[in-house]
Specification:
This protein has 51 residues and is mainly alpha-helical. It contains one helix and no strands. It has one helix at 2-50.
């Protein structure tokens, strides 16, 4: 019985680690997208000021 609990614990732990890794990659990607959007917004504001 305890072996089944240990195996279940290991599977759950590996699942959580896997999900955490995927979420961190997505967060990094989202941060890069936000930085690019901020640059585009800044450039657009500068362009509007010049007109």
């Amino acid at each position: 019985m305890s072996i089944i609990l240990i195996i279940a614990f290991v599977i759950i732990t590996l699942g959580i680690i896997s999900i955490d890794g995927k979420l961190k990659k997505r967060l990094d990607n989202d941060e890069r997208i936000i930085e690019r959007l901020e640059i585009i917004i800044h450039n657009q504001k500068e362009k509007e000021k010049m007109e």
